[in-house]
Amino acid sequence: MPSTYPEMWEKRVERNLNDATDAPWLDNIPELDTEVIEVGSGTATEKNIIHIPASDFEPTVLVDNTAYPLAVEQYDDNETIVRLHKFQSLPTELTDDQVLGASYDKIDAATTAHKEAILAKKYVRAAHAMAPAANTPATPVILTDGVGLNAATAASGARLQMSYENLVAFKVACDKAKMPVRGRRLVLCDDHWNDLLLDRKNFGDQMVNYKEGSPAPRILGFDLFRYSENPHYNGTTKLAFGAVPTDTQSQASFAFVASNVAKKTGFTKQYFRDAKIDPENQSNKLNYRHYFVACPKRLKYIAAIASGRKA
Hints:
- The protein is of the alpha+beta class and 311 residues long.
- It folds into two domains: 6-130 and 262-295, Major capsid protein gp5 fold; 141-260 and 300-306, hypothetical protein PF0899 fold (2-Layer Sandwich), CATH 3.30.2320.
- Helix content is 23%, strand content 29%.
- The chain is flat and about 80 Å long.
């Protein structure tokens, strides 16, 4: 029986990465039916890319027309190249004493930390990508105002809570941006989730399906979700990914249309150096590279509501 099982570890981690459901707001969104192309395999510039055909073409429809011949319209479309994000875990050192005669239990113990770290990072990156960068007519970002909740009592600079009126205003902004009604998903940050719990008159009894013990399926036409790692905003401007927010910058909730999501899992690679080639330390090195993307197909049908601040 061999002393180490790097091939078995690789398959175990790949299955865990693809089956995890730590971001339920991406559930039931099918992965794009397109081939992942690996460019520069094994080099420092290696990347996974996909090609997405996209078109905003809408044919003109005539009503009670009597004039012929009909004008001919040309169909047009574009192709978008999407680069999958690369997620790499730092190498973990495993001594031969730890992996001799490894069982599946030991395989899970050795890989769980890598799996969970990559999952956490890739979904945080997806949430950041799904939220608009700034307020535009096509990608509205509005602010909470705390009216009816803490607006009157908040200290200067304090975060203003989300109210029912704010959520209605957010729906109106999405309507004005021509966001399709079908498939709207709202991903609440912890602050906004808790704000709505406090507003018992409008939301307190709707936030939980007491029969199932799960979030209510819909509020104001949005499929409702909760995520603790939503992006932060400075007013209506999103902070860069990885930026550390200040005390005056707040997490936001974001909305999107499920059909406008480009979601694709690329390759998962294992890197392993056997202790057999490290006689001094008799130590194995193990880490992983994983490719994944979830982002809007086009810069529309996305929106966010950030927390305002008391002047």
